[in-house]
Predict the structure.
Amino acid sequence: MRRTHLSRAALAACPALAVGLLLSAAPARADSPLPLTAVSDHQTTVRGGEFTLTLTLTNPYDTPIQFVYQSVQETYPTTLEPGLKFTATACGTQTNGCSDNVHGGIARYNVPLASGASSSFTVTYTVAPDSACGTTRIDFYSYLYYEYNGGLANNSGIVDVPGTQVLCS
């Protein structure tokens, strides 16, 4: 039996469709670099210790940034660490607040953010005294979405936040 042109085309399209579906499941990444820096004030901490994440947004555009949505969440490997216990104990600075649930919560930056201006969002975490220890890492990522140019343009993506290693003392 001979294959028709239609069935050949369908067979050729299947791999392309599979690749397209796999790529569409990947996390969103910004089309242009995000104007966000993320740092932790400690590279290590101990049980009962604390560390602060600082995320700084700088407006690189000629028009104000007028809307910002940002979440801070622990990475999937961090959620899988057995016995790791930590909570957000403080939030804010140069923002008009944080949501009650920082994990997946929203940083509410003061907007509009003028061209060239910067604003920072901080979250302080405390590690429980009975938390797991050793080479356990606490890692975060931040999803950022913002609008500028009178709402006609936007940018978004995921930013990896440097982790903190939890060491026992």
Q: What stands out?
A: Residues 137 and 165 are 4 Å apart (CA to CA). Confidence is low (pLDDT under 50) at residues 13-30. Residues 5-24 form the longest helix (20 residues).
